[in-house]
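Q: Could you fold this chain for me?
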Amino acid sequence: MSKPSILILDDDEMWLARHERRLTQAGFKCFATQNAKQAIDWGKSQTSIKFGLIDEILFVPPVPIDESQRELQRWQGSGAIREIVAMRHDIQFIIVTSAPQLHSQENDRLFSRETSKLRRQPQVVDLIHKQDIEIDPDTEYRWLIGEILDRSKHNIIGRTLDIKPRVLLGIGLDPSIYESIAEALDRQRTNHLLLTPYLKKLPEHQSKPTIEKLISSAIEQCIFVEAPGSKKLDRTSIKPNSQSGQIISILATRSELQQNTIVREADYQYNPRSKDRPYDIDSTQDSQQSVDFAYEYSDGRKHRRDGVQIETRQTESRLKTAIHRLKQDLAKANVAPLDTLFNFNGEGYIPNFELGIVVYSVKPKRKKIVG
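A: Sure. Below is the predicted structure, expressed as structure tokens.
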């Protein structure tokens, strides 16, 4: 099978030539342009194009050295991707850009947020920072070309690549207690380890902790999304102790234990938002007395008494409501469209995405001594 063609879009002539040279040497045919409109036209019309390398910030070429004289193109990288995706569903994109670094102004949290936003676009499989290429071009291009080569072997003309994102429960462990994790992270030069492969690599003579023990001993937890085709993780805004986080924890644990990934009503422990109620109405008493207790009348109108909370009868499934909230959170993280995330089989909810658990090292925070 012949190699797919690559679309390259970058307003900087130097970066455009660098990408094209590396990919051409690897045997790919390239459609390289500094103009977003030209890239969109090629993306829609050239069916041999199966991958795109897209920069996010696009100025009208030639780009002036003086920043005040630069003019943005009509379409930026994200806009060009949207235009092509609207017509073609068999193209995968890798964003190669310095946009997150420029927008974040060395703010790590903002840098992560900007990176995640770009990476989670439809049909975007990953993002490479230009500063990483500057530091180690051979490693970054080796990964980039290897990723494309590997995918091209399985690519079928006219067919969308079926690559699902993964939702991962992150477990932060104390490296002084779990030294093997710190050693493995350092040896593999990564920040996170998938739990099951990590446990399998532990020596046979070493007692292996259970998944439940690891979760309970975590210093912190978080929910990650692994973008399709990527080994880089994006931290989501889902809180582990929330209703959505509880469901992810249940499903991720079952996935690691190779059990059926289904969550049922009996699995879900509902925690009411407010536990302390200043008044309670006895449901056995007369309904009119309840009304008189809860309301008062003034100026000819009925008003709720201060501090009184009326407890309404729950008629809908608690789990169904929590699943709906989780679907909103996951759709916002671009895991999949909201209505495709879960299936209900009459017994419980089954996810249409992959799950798992990753572990990483976190040093415990020192408590401040007051006095």
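A (continued): Confidence is low (pLDDT under 50) at residues 154-162, 275-287.
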